[in-house]
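Annex B, item 7. Sequence and structure tokens for protein A, then protein B.
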Amino acid sequence: MTEFNPSTEISIEGDKFLVNGIPTNEKVTFRGVSIEGLMMNSRMANAVFDDDNEFTRHLWDYPDNEKWDADRNTNELVEMLPTYMSKGLSCINVNLQGASPLGYYKSNPDGLSDLMTRIQAKFPDAIEPEIWKGLPDTRSQPWDSGAFTEKGQLKPAFMRRVTKVIEAADEIGMIVCLGLFYFGQDERISDEKSVKTAVEKATNWVLAKGYTNVLLEINNECDVPLYEHEILCPDRVHELINLAKSISKDGVRLLVSTSFTRRMVPTEKVIESSDFILLHGNGMHDPVEITTRVLETRNTPSYTGQPIFFNEDDHFEFENESNNFVAALEQRAGWGFFDPGPGAGGTAAYGNYVDGYQNPPINWTINTPRKESFFWILSKLTGR
């Protein structure tokens, strides 16, 4: 690997994140509460997305040329990073297995019927066993969007795109929260040994590249009951957190955690093992639920004062006096914007190169009222 000279370093001091030794949002307060050290972030999980399934790849075609282009997707995101940063965004969340390109994948009869219609428009003779080849059943997402082989090795083309994102972020002082696994894709990895190999390979890759602006998220929403590997579930995922933390280069290791949905408070073992705590606000329709979840997390016996941030929440209402974003800040927790376009709230939606930051083809510009509203309030709250 070529030598990289980083210019951005993430660290933790108490419950604060520091970038190059300076707290994020230094000396900024909101409603009398210091938001210094909080992580303002946005979910860009499909920043390095690609699809190796020939039957589904065309579903993500760009409207201007009717082709899907993974490099274009990444390049267009990278072009926007300075703009995001100028408006107060400190961190983007990227996942090596991507995220559902439909916002929320639905394997119910209506969802599957719609999906099959779209697939058979290009492949009239395609059948389910071909489309879902190697997967348990149609509950699994058929697209193959991960950076890992079945044995946990890294795919070079994916990692070249990850390199672009991390290095572009480093140049401007931005953090990348790098997720490894996503439910619906983890079954593409053959067994537990290969899951551990994937953790080792990804962690060593980041360290060998010399990146110091990366936080590691083992998996997205470990408590979703769709993970195929037990070690990715709440009772055991701390083993992978500890595995990643055990890997170092020249005395340096990564800061590691994993995320939970509204379904449960992070387990004591996960909190004990984690350098920071990741929560999700999807499904928390009342901002009081945000407040309650932060307090419940802090009241867990194994909690020792780590930083907390929500790195996914598809609730907006930024014009209201009370909303999930401000509720998190009032409890000194960072917050993450999750915009799946029309899929917000739990429905499936195909990308249209206009709405959202998740469903490819993705328009990474600030081009819709929802995106404008988020970056407006972010700029206002962070003093940008």
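Protein B:
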Amino acid sequence: MEWGIKLRSKKNKLLKKTFINFVIKILVLSICIPLCMLLGIFLLAVLIDRLSFQWLYDISPEVYNNFRDFFSSITTVRALVIPIIIIWVIGTLVLLYRLLKKVFGYIDEIGKATEELVNKDVEYIELPDELEEIKNHMNHLKRESEKNEKLAKENEKKKDELIVYLAHDIKTPLTSMIGYLSILDEIDDMPKKKQKNYISIALDKSYRLEDLINELFDVARFNSEKIVLEKEELNLNLMLEQIIDDFYPTLREVNKSIKLNYNEPISINGDPDKLSRVFNNLIKNAISYSKEESEIVINLKKDNNNAIVEVINKGKQISKEKLSKIFEKFYRADSSRTSKTGGSGLGLAIAKEIVELHNGKIIATSNDLETVFEVVLPLCKN
């Protein structure tokens, strides 16, 4: 729809420009031609009046007198009014016909080109030189449309594969839970220690099952749910501290820690729920992909009119190829089906969309020492 509006706008501007140019030509020519003819006739009459045509008189006095009488009569404006009007009307009609013919020709050419825009057999749209600008624009739209269509098919394929993967993985913890709970139900005199161990395993499997179901819901919602922001002034320092506190049980379990660095309070205008989701995803990724017993560092600082949040973890380097795709929908840096770090491949894609809706940007860099996710958001305007 958007490219269609742009195309119509371009076409309307071009036709308007062409029409104005031809109207100007009509006005100029319809005025200049009669004036030039009138001036020419007057000059010719003056020339005849000034020059002697004795040779014509010698040949035929009667022809000479008729010649002199004719050019004397056309020196009056009255005698020229009707011829000038006739010439003007004819000239205007001719020019108007040419204008309409050219404009309708442009419309036909653009109509054909519009059909070629969605024709996969046509690789390049050709238009006359006068339509160079709109031709380039339409070819650009064609390339973008084909690129988006290809991307949509790839995303749909990835989504289908991911749904199959999640459905398969949901069965594993579910089967395990059923097995342990069945044992607990069947054996009444099970030792307390063993009973507690089975309950703990079943609980872990239920948490994993919950994560997989949430991922499945994310996949189902992503294409149908439009992100709407509800902005308010919020303190980034406090938000990050609260998010880090929520990760305390997870950090203790994997024997990792998070250090938050900042020198001053920083406020932005944003949606607290959506931004919490962004930083939650980034911290969750940092925990999943960092080295054993390592420290995750979060730096919060100002740079000109922006707030910058850096989430840094020490772990395996992400290749340039993977970095270029890391914010794509359904892309999973860890393609292992059994890995708990694999995820649905939507976390970073959603994070990028939320940040960009806040007029910010998110960047990922990685080397052999650390991986950094940098979020840039505009500060509150005073």
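Comment on protein B: DSSP finds eleven helices and seven strands in the chain.
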